[in-house]
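cron nightly-structures :: item 1 of 1
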Amino acid sequence: MSVAGNPYADTRAMYAVHTLFRRELALLPALVGSVPSHDRARAEVVADHVKLLCGMLHHHHSAEDAVLWPLLLARAPKEIDPVVQLAEGHHQALDDLLTEAGKRLETWRDSVAGEDSAALALTLRRLAVAAFEHMGLEERLVLPVVERHIFATEWAAMEEHALGAYSADEAVLLVGMVMYEEGIESIGATFPAEVLEAAPRVYAAYCDRVHGTQVPPRSTELAIGTPLVGVASEVMAG
């Protein structure tokens, strides 16, 4: 997506996706903790949601790894190289946490036991902290450079790389997740009108099933350290 007459990337959609991740990742620990021990039906709903969000974060970063970082290292001023390398390191750390979360998720899915729920929630809190830090770095130091050195066509290729990982139904849900806080302006002309019309309803119904409400807390209510995120000292040290 680009502004008319500007050949370089319009990064507004990235900020909107970050808003999605700040909200959804921050809600995961308390969501897992809210499932009563041995309530397998509820645990399946929540586990599927955790798996979806972890997969979304992985796909998002895989697209950056494949397209964005090589272009910036080849084209942007060399002063940006340490920032790119730091961001790549963040991706590796986040991937390690996603792997850990996946293992703990399957253990909890099998047992639906309190101790396994607590272990998974702790990993998800660490994931939220790391993701918040990484997205803040990108917004402060990476995206302004992208807007001067990455062409709109290259940015679109990265977005297509990420979207290629989703089924049609998952794509509609993803659009609804973005539109919940950022509105239709954050999507632009990327999706057909029928998707834009259906997406808010699809996300509202999904939230009702997963969160018990069609209007979950917004990202502005979920800063690190707030009760819903529940970051404890041992998380920050982990």
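cron nightly-structures :: done
The helical segments are 12-33, 40-75, 81-111, 114-149, 152-163, 168-182, 193-210, 233-237.
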